[in-house]
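#struct-pred
JK: can someone run the complex with adenosine-5'-diphosphate? inputs below
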Amino acid sequence: MAIDERTLLASVPTGLFIGGEWRPATGGATLSVTDPATGKELLTIADATPEDGLLALDAADAAASAWAATAPRARGELLRRAFDLLQERADEFALLMSLEMGKPLAEARGEVAYGGEFLRWFSEEAVRISGSFGSNPEGTGTIIVSQRPVGPSFLITPWNFPLAMATRKIAPALAAGCTVVVKPAELTPLTTLLFAKLLVDAGLPVGVVNVVTTSSAREVSAPIIADPRLRKLSFTGSTPVGRTLLTQAAKNVLRTSMELGGNAPFVIFDDADLDKAVDGAMLAKFRNIGQACTAANRFIVHESVADEFAARITERVSALTVGRGTDGVDIGPLIDDRAVANLTELVADAVAGGARILTGGAAIDGPGTFFAPTVITGLASDARMLREEIFGPVLGITTFATEAEGVALANATEYGLVGYVFTKDLARAHRMIDAIDTGMMGVNTGIVSNAAAPFGGVKQSGVGREGGAEGISEYLETKYTLIPAG
Ligand code: ADP
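RT: done, structure tokens with the ligand placed:
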């Protein structure tokens, strides 16, 4: 059944969710959430103060020991009920994400499926937390290794995947037995509020999940991170903010998980299946309007196939439709004016360095923050878009001659999140898996994300992994006990 926007927005809670209650911010401040496709306000919600942030931590701390002592099966079943409810409410979450973030509705549905998988996966992992038991080599005692929840955790999420980035953190934390304070991005807080309501319907105990929405991210977050009751910080966002948070987390030697920026190479060899490479490129570059840390940022194409790839991809990109995410388009708006200004600068810099625009190349007049899907070829080696995250629908092509040169270009970045390689040569694919310095690789595919796999980067793309068997261990501490024999 189709839901209309008004009814949906009326169902979204607008308060802070602290200790099982929805409440206004201290002092009553509110913040306005807008639709990037129209610039119009969608809702006003509570704008938390630093005191509110600490109240949320109070609630998470008060609930911590009871939640840690709750049977793993019961923790898993809560997540499983949340998964089932999300399936029932999929259309609502998809529409809400499309409204507040701008993504095409079809992609928003895809995110509901992807985000939901973390609830299902970790509902299953909750009952598999285990340890080990053995003799010490001297034969004088027994070694017991067990896993315990880390404790109250602070989860900071970005705007580009409002649901999946929340479930990817909340689900493993709850499965492990940790209580949480969640701070969604100020640009897209509504999805997390609606999700908190879903968790309540699924039977969430008081204080296990608390949500603070705020326009003062730094001011609200810093006192939470500095509080000795907090034991864990998990962040997804930009590398500069990640560095700041790591510095703050050092004070109390917090456990941290950081999913930071990417600058993914997309390497196409001369023996690649070009049809697959073009399909993969469309997904890796244009999914989520190009606004993903896993987005292919640099197309490194063998010189013998570069012209053909450029021609084929240009044909596909020119056919992309642009508009409001709810209108059946391929490409929605960018998140804000700053993003449009940044893309405009990156394209101007590339052109000044001698690159050629094959299609697109400019912002589209408002209302709304739209940028035309773009293909640029002949990037100079010092082009800014080879170094910086593009975070938009702009595809830049550079070429290479030898395999060694392709690898060197792929690794010429401080980031190391994901790499994409297209080749039909299995031995070469294996060489690339070893040679490209990233936490994840896609071989002949433009999309790698999966709840059952460990997502994360090396170098300045972050520390820690989300999803897979590894995901829950980010919220567990290993405890070793020695029991002497006799
Ligand atoms: P982006 O560039 O994708 O907007 P950011 O790293 O700026 O990514 O934001 C990701 C998340 O981090 C958002 O929830 C934002 O509110 C939050 N954030 C930004 N700056 C800080 C900060 N200094 N302290 C805590 N959270 C922050």
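RT: quick notes.
The CA atoms of residues 105 and 326 lie 5 Å apart.
The first strand starts at residue 16 and ends at 18.
JK: thanks, will look after standup
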